[in-house]
Amino acid sequence: MGDIDGDGVLDLAVGAHYDGDGGTQAGSVYVLFLETSGSVKNARKLSAFHGNIDAFYVVETADYFGVSVAVLGDLDGDGVGDTAVGAYYDDDGLGNIGAVYMLFHETNGNVKDANKISALHGNLNTFYALEAGIRFGISATTLGDADGGGVVDLAVGADFDHYGGSYTGAVYVIFLETNANAKSAQKISFVYGNLNAFYTIDTNDRLGRSLAVLGDIDGGRWCR
After folding, report:
1. Of 51, 57, 181, 224, which cross-links 123 as Cys (Cβ 3.0–4.6 Å)?
2. What is the pLDDT of residue 221?
3. Quick one: three-class SS letters along 25-65?
4. Domain contains 101
């Protein structure tokens, strides 16, 4: 998460997506303030009951909040690192559709503000319609400032996306604004994003189950 408490040591966000705060398998994230030895000197839990998320959104039974966590850097420019947290069975719009919670933190780890990217929030529906059961948010990673807009961008997996076949999967590349809304997006899947020029994504491949940033391996402008 960067050094959000200002003690010179990087801090950590850890998902626990089966946590029972707020209901069975509602999920949680632990913000861990570390010592130089790697031990935890302090901690803050983010869940239905802790960390002030409930001021903005309801985390409830079987959301699996915390199944993925991505560090956004200081998205809102307040000097404190922010996070994106996947909840792949969140029911915004339709059953088990999934969502990503964009969390703006205070120095103690609490949530001071939040946005949600889902079928109903965050402007992603301007570009793509999320469908029931796709498990949007099963994975997430930041891409750096991929489009050169001065704001970090995000990739989100939806491994049960079924456009082109059952569970073919997809990745959504989301170009962010500082309030964590999507200003633009590109889907990579069986039919979108030009991947089919190189490989065929088949039924049950579950593209997007995991994501990792490689850095700029070909000398282009991504992940700079």
Report:
1. 181
2. 56
3. CCEEEEEEEECCCCCEEEEEEECCCCCCHHHCCCCCCCCCE
4. yes
